[in-house]
Amino acid sequence: MRRDVFQAIADPTRREIISLISQQSLNLNAVADHFDMSRPAVSKHIKILMECGLLVIRQDGRERYCEPQLKKIKEVALWAEKYQAFWSQKLDALEAFLGQENKSNS
User: Fold this and answer.
1) How far apart are CA 20 and CA 5, in angstroms?
2) Could you tell me the pTM of the whole model?
3) Closest CA relative to residue 78, chosen from 17, 6, 3, 11
4) What are the φ and ψ backbone dihedral angles of 3, each rounded to 5 degrees?
5) What is the pLDDT of residues 38-97, one digit of tens each?
6) Is 45 helix (H, G, I), strand (E, B) or coil?
7) Quick one: how far is CA 105 from the chain centroid?
8) In a 10 Å sphere around its CB, with 0-12 CB exposed, 13-18 middle and 19+ buried, how is residue 31 labelled?
9) How many angstroms separate the CA atoms of 50 and 56, rounded?
């Protein structure tokens, strides 16, 4: 199954994993220790993040470390940027409307 970055960030657990490893590389056990779920469940989330290209696993002796590959997050930022202008315009219009309403009620 082909996955994309939007699937990765759709889940709060995966967003939290991204946040954790963006600060420092962590071994798989350290990542799992942050969650109240089984290690296999955390491993499934990590696998999805790997398939989406948001992290890689680096082997260091017997330990396996999750390392961030966050360039793909830019894809989300570019997508959201399209809507920023739209919502800014709508919110500016609402602000102007509410300002007129306040003047007429005073």
Assistant:
1) 17
2) 0.75
3) 6
4) -115, 155
5) 999 999 999 999 999 999 999 999 999 999 998 888 888 888 888 888 888 889 889 999
6) helix
7) 44
8) buried
9) 6
66: CB partners within 8 A, 6+ apart: 17, 21, 25, 26, 27, 28, 31, 46, 49, 55, 56, 57
CB 66 within 8 A of CB 26: yes
What's the pLDDT at 31? 96
**Domain positions in the chain:** 5-72
Asked if pLDDT for residue 102 goes beyond 90, the answer is no
- State whether residue 37 is helix, strand or coil: coil
Task: Name the CATH topology of 5-72.
Answer: Arc Repressor Mutant, subunit A (1.10.10)
Residue 1: per-residue pLDDT = 63
What's the token pair of residue 59? 């082997």
Residue 61's SS3 state is coil
Note whether 14 and 52 are within 8 A (CB): no
